Structures
1.
Amino acid sequence: MADTQQGIDFTIMYSTHRAFQRDLRRLAAAVQAGRAGSPRVLAGWQNFSHQLHNHHSVEDTDLWPKVEAKIQGRPADQRLMEAMEAEHADLGPRIDAVDAALRSGADNLATRVQDLHELVDHHFTHEENSALPLIQDVLTPAEWKKFGLANAKNLGIKGVAVYIPWVVDGVSPGDKRDFLAAFPPPVKVANTLLWERAYNKKGLWKA
């Protein structure tokens, strides 16, 4: 899943997108099984919501403005950035609707989850097929690295200690290796020795 044209590697972005989609599949399965209100499912949903809010808020504040500064006089690319921001805004009400249905046990929970899943899939596909190639075209590897550092700063150390094992939860050994290789070596050590164990104890999404 890595794309290293011009030295920019999108492995972390792709892996994070797949983690969100995985969690939505888990939520849909929990709804179908009648256990959407269980503590571990609710904890999984809370983590999903937190991770998605962080992911998109950092894009809005530290990524899209950098891209927009490079595309003055390029109307089609400017419209793409407007679409990215609009899709982020559209996700907020969908997340709130799922959250409300989860808390109340509403009959339309499955429909709410499906609506959110479809919008997330559409957004990620649009971003990967259109926005990431634009980023490759206009940003430097150093600028992309600064975005990654902004994401880590926004999460904080405790947040990173959850984010890393959350992304690799249930992935193939190869995908896990590729994802962790995108970080400094101490991250892999900390994840193996500390973070994964603490994350797994939470049993997110499990019955």
2.
Amino acid sequence: MPNVKKYATKKANTYGTVGGGKALVENFTKAFGNIFDSSIHSVTNIIAGETLKIADTELSIVETADAFDIVFPEINVIYTHMLGHDCHSIIGGAAHADAMIAELEGYINKNYDLILTSHYDPEDTNDVKTKIDYVKNIKSIANKSANAEEFKEKVKLEYPNYSGVNYLDITAGAFFPA
């Protein structure tokens, strides 16, 4: 859609063009070859901590540690990239875990009626509480583990029915870099 405005925060634009997002696209391109569309759209509008009205709907942009969330204040809903009360998340080490916990506690303090995500079903604040407990426990398990393999084994025992084991692998790499 070449003639459509493309919005992003400065941080999200950097992530997609020179940061971790670009690295993901490059890795997907290596893995899948020409069948993967590796193009990254050019942002036309940089936004920062502001309220917008698109299609007669008010949106508040809230910068996060990773990119941004979108709040729909009229209906008390927040959109975030990923939550998943019963799936592993990518946690980039202890400091990232702390940032995630603070962010999620903010959802509870604001008592959102609904949390929408890119990669999961609609969730509520009970699901947020479950995720906070998970992140705290991941941090604790990492502190008690000698290496990535031990960490993954302990987490899998603790959360045997969680999906997203590939995210657990990424988290293990962040807590225990090679």
